[in-house]
Amino acid sequence: MSGRTATKETANVVWSGSWVAERLGVELVGDGELRELLGLALRRNPKRAHLLVSQVLGKHVPQHPSVVYGAGFELGRRVRELLGEAGARRAVVLGYAETATGLGHAVADGLGTAPYLHSTRRPVEGVARAGGFEESHSHATSHLLLPEDPDLLAGDVGGARDACGAGDTHDTRDAHDAGDARDAGDVSGAGDVRDAGETYSSDAVLVLVDDEFSTGNTVLNTIRALHERNPRNRYVIVALVDMRSPADHGRLADFAAEIGARVDLVARNSGTVRLPDGVLEKGQGLVTAEEVAQEDERRAGATPRPASGAPRPCARVDLGWPAGVPDGGRHGFTPAHRARLEPALPAMADRIADALDDGARRVLILGFEELMYAPLRLGAALEDRSDIEVRFSTTTRSPVLAVDDPGYAIRTRLVFPAHDDPADGPGDRYAYNVAGAGFDAIVAVVDSTADTPELHAPEGLLAQLAAHTAQVLLAVVPSYMPPEAIPTAATPAAAGESGVPLSSAVSLPSAAPVPSYAPERQDEPRMLPEPLRGPAFSSYAPDEVGWLLQDLSDTELEAPTEEREEAIQSGGAHYAESLPVEYQPSDQYQDLFKAALDLSAARVARAVGTVTETVLAERGPRPVLVSLARAGTPVGVLMRRWARHRHGVDLPHYAVSIVRGRGIDANALRWLAAHHNSADIVFVDGWTGKGAITRELAAAIAEFEDSGGTEGFNPEIAVLADPGGCVRTYGTREDFLIPSACLNSTVSGLISRTVLRSDLVGPEDFHGAKFYRELAGSDVSGHFLDTVADRFGEVADAVDADVKELLTADRAPTWEGWAAVERISEEYGIHDVNLVKPGVGETTRVLLRRVPWKILAKRGAGADLEHIRLLAEQRGVPVEEVAELPYTCVGLIHPKYTRGATGADGRAVESK
Fold first, then answer.
1. Which residues form the TRSP domain (predicted)?
2. Looking at domain 816-892, which of 3.40.50.720, 3.40.50.11750, 3.30.1360.170, 3.30.1330.30 is its CATH number?
3. Is the peptide bond before 98 cis (omega within 30 degrees of 0)?
């Protein structure tokens, strides 16, 4: 059955985009089949609210496997005709994760002899990255290229055989395209004249496959990056639909001329989406209103969750997957692999058919995120060898609004936790149009990496599916690991594909115990340990933050403040080589902290929301928060809580050490690069003073990259308050009291400041810190977080207004704080900017940890300075009011300190 026939056969009487079109004024304009091919849905995305939902992709809408596979295969045949036999033999196909992995594989099959690779969002230890790129409008932007053969994308080096004209573009969407005088398949241009000395490193054609070609940014950025590394003569872009706007049509020719290569476009259908002004804001508002209405209905009992009923067994199906055949194209899939898979498909389909109940007439083969090709081919084989009505779709990372209306493309949504230990941390995953679709059985197909306890948990995917079908089967495809990435100590699983008996069955009720599943794929031993987490290290919950530190709790590191100050200023020791004795606040000071927290909680919540929304808008919807320990850690936790409160996303969050004069922990950067895309990392701190840490981080990242470390880390810091004008991502530039600055470890998860000393921290170690378990009785870390988070709801409107203003404002750093500090240093005869600590937060640190000389306070400053005045009084430090001060206060450390020194008022500064 052809794809075009099937679309007409299954077309709805009501167009599945009408609900969105009517409410937002969105128009879908194109050839006659376009509305049968595409529907519309909405998603919560700061860059593009609407989603084109394909009826033949096999991602969001269950479809006949033969239709899904046939659509890609037919496109591959068209590319083969375009390139000719010789060109097809030299082609390499690259598909995009996650939606186009199966489509790209089918295109490669249509070409016949092309090796295939798809991008991935799953880093694999031991496999070198051949590149990566960003998908700007996606919910999960970072793509990795991890070919087993590093030369796969390099192509056939050796000259310009049958070369096409440089800068030539050829659009083969349909034969009737206006302005295109060549027939599809034309490979003219071999005799084009080039500039003298111009050569190409490869005439192997790279075929790039995505489900849609709209702005073209993702594909063109990929080509540009790969072309810089391995220039070639020709590229072919393949998509189910060409949805470029009229303004974007000329970009392809300009791009081809820019890189000096021919770029063709092959698309099944063409059209465009017309968007009215303000559609993004209106769409986001519509999503919010619909979510609120659905939640109200659920609470009122109008749409109760399906009852799970009696436990349903989830039986495993032993597929008998052929040894050595990859589960997909993550590391490359060659014609030789295809030749071994094809004859094995009928027998695997028969095993699935034998495991189905006798009454199963309508069956869904459900793939898993990037794992699309293997379940698609299994479904097509089952469809071919039985009279069962088979449909195919896959789970996805993409959060989309579901509306049970025939004019909306996503009718139902199942939500379940990720079950493959994703590198970007835990989060929700989705299966669309499965619930209520009337399937008699669902066959979930996952790779062995994803066969985890989370998959079988009471809230996991299998339990969610069991509520909507009479039978759930699980088929596990072994996760392919390139030989060089497999640890030598690894031993093969003794049982089935996941190391458990193949006949095992698990029960899915909420009370069922979670069995132990060991994936076949075994990870390479890590050089660096996993992050420390509470309650073993810190009083924070384990999901709030992972500390990329080593535990030095049993090491004596504390020294009297005066001894430390004398050693630091004399050059005998660095401040990070020891710890000050933890300040034990008096009852009066504790009461002051609580009062300050009550007074400023809403203000802090507003700043948290503002900086978080700014990060989400500018750095993508799933950034990885990396706090600079320890002042940044409470802020990072609050930002994570805001993202969950406002958007329902769980952002990964870690804390790392940075030391003035010594840089950031390079081993922590290596760990982050191994587990996340470096471009997703957002460094977080509490506040800026004069900007020393901002400069330190930028220098440290540059040094890390120059020494061969992973590139792509953005050294910009996101802070709650930026009174120094040192960063462009902040919650506010006002210098106000952030209550977490009032205390030390007891408001920071009971963790000390970080330690870097050569006898304790080796070249392969994380920096160190201590966990003060003995201070648990004084710990207010959770109270601080909860008090601020409780105010999120009331500041939401103010946050929206702040963010709207900030995103259009000039936020370039002014470095006013640094200039002020230099002036103060000279005016007061200190001549060392490191002894001038501007801002409420830094002044508090001076009084808690250093030997203060005097405090400069802005005349008229009120409640923000009450705790400063109390601390100064307790330590005998004068507070001098200053009229013209760019900060609320500035703390001055005693210059040239010795323990015989006295303060400005003649009183001894050494504690008695």
1. 327-464
2. 3.30.1330.30
3. yes
